[in-house]
Design a protein that fits this description.
4-stranded mixed β-sheet, two-stranded antiparallel sheet, about 5% strand
Length: about 625
């Protein structure tokens, strides 16, 4: 399939070839085994983080304050991760859901091209550069293969790069572009205005997609900039001018982010986990990260990487500035969370810093190891050419087989099959896009939104810019409409321990991380919990931002609100879609003189207003 003559093609042509192979194999398997499902259903079930899809849809239509309620206007904005979904939004606007597929090929090729350039500049030949790039791209598949061993931190390594939409498929490309830009700089050449402007722009793109990468990148740049200018005779105003150019570029490209943040619904920021950092919380987080950094596993990692680093500096002929840059990247992954915690007044989903620390450490360790091996065997034609070609060929076969298995398994998921039957029935009804539809099912909501349905009685909290009060009122109004009593409402909001954490998925979908509870924070900093909950919270890592426990006073408030709620305006859904797996929907009462019921399958039932369809058969 691939041989030396193939790789002796111009690198760009070969990278296009291998990108097309990876892209074609994945989508051929996906479409071949899942041809009975429509494309949107496949995306919702086979791609993680489908909750980003409505954000893509809204940005593509420049809807910055989506409510999905035709009677509700004037809400604040959503805090879109604008630079991570921008390209998907543009292609979605042009090609609908097919734009996601087109963009994925562009993403795969862009990744290969950037990493090939990075590795080539570091000192790998074309064969090894392609092999290492391929290993990184399909590392998720390899980790899934060996993860039955349950190796600690292995899941975090997957965060370095994969094709999940939009993070890290887009967000981490900005980081890699930044690495590539720094690698092009050296002591003998001046950092020109173009590169300084690009650095400022990339900083803004990282802030608007995955701000953890920005924190890491700023420290990397400071280290590398000072290193390049060590013993320089530059005057201080030159350094100030360079910093000013970066700052102005950063501010210019940050204008869309600032515009959104200034107008963002405050309750939405709470729902996505943003918390204030006071002195005590900073100490808790700093203590946690410092303890992790000084744990045995990280000390051993630090020692091994340092040994490899000094070996590469002393015993090899690689460019010293590039070896130092790689080391700065490693050190910055440790320092970034510490500096960010000290400086920032707010933070959210802190565990991403820990994941980046692990994944970058593993990446630098792997690259250093490959560089050492390359320095020892670079004269060997077998090591430098034949062995990489063999492994490239082997990895592509493995990827093809793994894609085949995953696509085949995805095609027989019961939930997906039931969901598809529901969607087919909805499409048969030919419902007007402005018809009010009621459902609590997040996947159904995602499908309807991307299919341009504009009037949903309720949507998950991460999709909408409405306030928490309006959301509460909507939920209670729906429960009253469905004749669900206090017992069912309590079932909807009560705290539940699931696996290793407390999380009530109903609350998680509606208020997302508003009620996060761990050693670092609770709702309103309350300690008003059951004894067993309070004990569990005190032992929970401050990184567990997706553990949700509602204080007793807040549960009581919501229960009282439910009991005393006076409906100001009755909801008037014409279609009601019920997921029968939701416990709180048992014993619903819907007026059968107005609605007729269609039982789609074990999971889904549809209630149709007779004004829409007089015949339910």
């Amino acid at each position: 399939m691939f041989n030396e003559q193939t790789i002796n093609l111009k690198p760009t042509k070969f990278l296009l070839l291998i990108s097309f192979f990876v892209f074609f194999v994945k989508w051929f398997c996906e479409l071949y085994f899942n041809n009975e499902f429509d494309l949107l259903t496949n995306f919702i079930f086979d791609i993680k983080d489908h909750q980003y899809f409505p954000l893509v849809h809204n940005l593509s239509n420049i809807i910055l304050n989506p409510t999905y309620d035709l009677n509700l206007e004037g809400s604040n904005f959503l805090a879109f991760p604008i630079y991570s979904i921008l390209f998907h939004s543009i292609l979605f606007k042009l090609f609908n859901i097919y734009g996601f597929i087109i963009l994925e090929f562009i993403i795969i090729f862009t990744f290969f091209y950037i990493f090939f350039k990075i590795l080539n500049k570091i000192g790998f030949n074309s064969y090894l550069s392609i092999l290492v790039s391929l290993l990184i791209l399909i590392s998720n598949n390899l980790i899934d293969l060996i993860n039955f061993i349950n190796i600690p931190y292995l899941q975090a390594v997957k965060e370095f790069y994969n094709l999940r939409i939009p993070r890290p498929s887009i967000s981490h490309l900005y980081l890699f572009l930044f690495f590539n830009l720094l690698i092009s700089m050296n002591r003998s050449t001046k950092i020109d205005i173009k590169n300084l402007t690009l650095i400022g722009a990339l900083f803004a793109f990282m802030w608007g997609s995955f701000y953890y990468n920005l924190a890491i990148s700023i420290i990397i740049f400071l280290f590398y900039y000072l290193y390049l200018n060590k013993n320089s005779e530059k005057k201080i105003y030159i350094f100030l001018k360079d910093g000013l150019i970066i700052l102005l570029s950063f501010i210019f490209f940050s204008i869309p982010i600032l515009f959104l943040l200034i107008n963002t619904e405050p309750d939405y920021l709470t729902r996505v986990g943003l918390i204030d950092l006071n002195y005590e919380k900073k100490l808790i987080l700093l203590e946690h990260f410092i303890n992790k950094i000084f744990s045995l596993s990280f000390i051993l990692t630090f020692i091994v990487i340092n040994l490899l680093y000094f070996y590469l500096k002393i015993k090899t002929s690689y460019k010293l500035n590039l070896i130092n840059l790689l080391y700065f990247i490693f050190i910055s992954s440790f320092l970034a969370p510490l500096f960010f915690i000290i400086i920032s007044p707010t933070i959210s989903e802190i565990y991403h810093f820990a994941n980046m620390l692990v994944s970058i450490s593993f990446f630098i360790f792997f690259i250093f190891l490959c560089l050492v091996a390359n320095s020892l065997f670079y004269k060997s034609n077998f090591f430098s050419k034949k062995l990489p070609i063999f492994f490239i060929f082997t990895l592509l076969i493995f990827f093809a087989y793994d894609s085949y298995l995953k696509a085949k398994n995805n095609s027989v998921l019961n939930e997906k099959i039931h969901f598809s039957k529901l969607i087919k029935q909805i499409n048969k009804l030919k419902i007007n896009k402005n018809t009010e539809i009621l459902t609590f099912d997040g996947k159904v909501q995602t499908y309807l939104i991307l299919d341009n349905y504009r009037n949903l009685t309720f949507v998950d909290g991460i999709y909408s810019s409405i306030s928490d009060e309006i959301m509460e009122n909507k939920i209670i109004n729906i429960f009253k409409f469905l004749k669900l009593d206090e017992e069912r409402f309590f079932e909807f909001i009560k705290n539940k321990k699931t696996g290793w954490r407390y999380i009530n998925n109903s609350i998680g979908k509606t208020f997302y991380m508003k009620y996060q509870a761990n050693k670092l924070t609770t709702f309103n900093e309350s300690r008003d919990f059951e004894d067993n909950e309070l004990k569990f919270i005190s032992k929970s890592s401050p990184l567990h931002s997706q553990q949700l426990i509602i204080p007793k006073f807040e549960i009581n408030r919501m229960m009282n609100k439910f009991s005393n709620f006076k409906t100001q305006k009755e909801i008037e859904p014409k279609i009601i879609i019920i997921n029968n797996n939701d416990i709180y929907t048992k014993n619903i009462e819907i007026d059968d003189s107005i609605f007729c019921k269609m039982s789609i399958n074990k999971i889904y039932s549809i209630y149709i207003n007779e004004a829409i369809n007089n015949n339910c058969s």
